[in-house]
Prior knowledge:
The chain has 20 helices and 17 strands. It is α/β, with parallel strands linked by helices. It has a domain at 346-525: Isoleucyl-tRNA Synthetase, Domain 1 (Orthogonal Bundle), CATH 1.10.730. Strands 3-2-1-13-14-9 form a 6-stranded parallel sheet, with helices on both faces. It has a 4-stranded antiparallel sheet with strand order 5-4-8-10, with helices on one face. The chain has a 3-stranded mixed sheet with strand order 16-15-17, with helices on one face. A hairpin with a 4-residue loop joins strand 4 and strand 5 (134-136). Helix 13 (346-376) crosses helix 16 and helix 15 runs antiparallel to helix 16. The longest helix has 31 residues, at 346-376.
Amino acid sequence: MPGEPFYATTPIFYVNDVPHIGHAYTEVAADALARWHRQAGDDTWLLTGTDEHGEKILRTAVANGTTPRAWADELVRTAWLPLLETVGVANDDFIRTTDERHERGVAAFIQKLYDDGHIYAGEYEGFYCVGCEEYKQRDELVLTDAGDYAGELVCAIHSRPVEILKEKNYFFRMSAFQSRLLELYETRPDFVQPESVRNEIVQFVRQGLSDLSITRTSFDWGIQVPWDPSHVVYVWFDALLNYITAVGYGVDDAKFARRWPAVHIVGKDIARFHAVIWPAMLMAAELEVPARVFGHGWLLVGGEKMSKSKLTGIAPGEITGTFGADAFRYYFLRAIAFGSDGSFSWEDLTARYNAELANGFGNLASRVLTMVQRYSDGTIPSPEGAAVGAAADADREVRDAERRATELADRAMERIAPHEALAAIWDLVDELNGYVQSQQPWALAKDPAQKARLDTVLFTASRGLGTLAVLLSPFLPTATERLWSALGAPGAVQEQDIRRAFEWIGDGPVRPLDPPLFPRVEAEAAVGA
Ligand code: MSP
């Protein structure tokens, strides 16, 4: 019987350029969340993909002497699909806005809104930023007084000049949904998260909503408007629909009912599209609004949002090449409170990697496995045998720590707070390290009279390690799979029920971890690797 439905999405990424670690950050956050739910037995679906229409992609392709379709194909094949492998994302689907299923769904959706009177023809005149693919208000622009664009109005995000557009467009009557949107934020306070993003959205909508221009005529790289082929659908209107066209909107009602609505994980820069325009579109189409929209913070470089256009982008492979995909996932999800901005530095990454992954967790795993081999012939003592040595307070504390870590991490993941989940799990890592240190199994092993106590300690430490493998598997899928098999545990670690992680019991035989889960990285090897 499938469990509770859980459908998570990432934004679909523009294919004008290759991914940097900001894009990979969104991917790993959504992936860890989906893996957690999958392991909790929920009927989970993770969608990611690429946003391929619009002026930005068209211009990039032309500048590179090719067609937008050929350009997109190339970037998807050589950069965006490989990214998923680079950072260990287990997505269930990958949608491209050039997929036929998507193009058909968009045409059907926009036609329905037109037939139902939510769309009208009008004239648009205003500023447009191709980098954002968005119309801008005057207060979103800055007049520069230096550099290449001195004296021009530039987009505050891209620092590039905006264009003045005057076109006959079709408009979506978004203004009609203002009060329903405010009511949505009011009645479902966790619809937009975190609080800071929610406040910004509520304030924005309270100021009043304009209608939205949703078609373009000055170029043709987009989905044709079905009733007027001289227009193509505005790229954001097209892109947002990927979340429903990927799960059968209009063609497979059973699939659609099973998956929709989704939890959208997005950067805070695009929260407004997801928490204002998107629910308004869905309301107009009489569909359910999303389950939640979480706008996470930015990775900063030199105090600014990391971006390729500002030449501050770091490729994910630069980090995974030295540290591995698991460490990439761990670092960004642990070091940055999800929802806040975070500065990336090689020094901090190296320090945390060595202290927490190599010494804290990796070393614990190697030590416990080695001791089980050395002092117990590779067999994890049975709980019955272990119970012979009276359970000491220290043993009970480990047991409590296992339960606590499982519960707290689960609640944190429910709130989409992976950093808190990892902190809760790390309390167990610390507890176990303290336990091994205080119980000194190597000293117990020297005294045959202490055999029962030694068994208890080895059993307790091994069980704690198994619990850690299960709890950490959404974050460290590769390392925990290795650990699970080194513990001699049957099946795949990703298949263990995460909410009962602490119930795991194994008997081995254990095998050594060679090489260790997280070999130390010297600082010189890491910086700018
Ligand atoms: N194509 C649109 C999204 C359409 S969704 C229907 C788009 N694409 S994008 O390629 O620009 O990627 C945007 C997303 O990448 C952000 O929302 C965020 O999730 C991620 N990030 C890009 N730069 C980032 C940082 N510097 N830091 C953190 N995340 C960043 O917008």
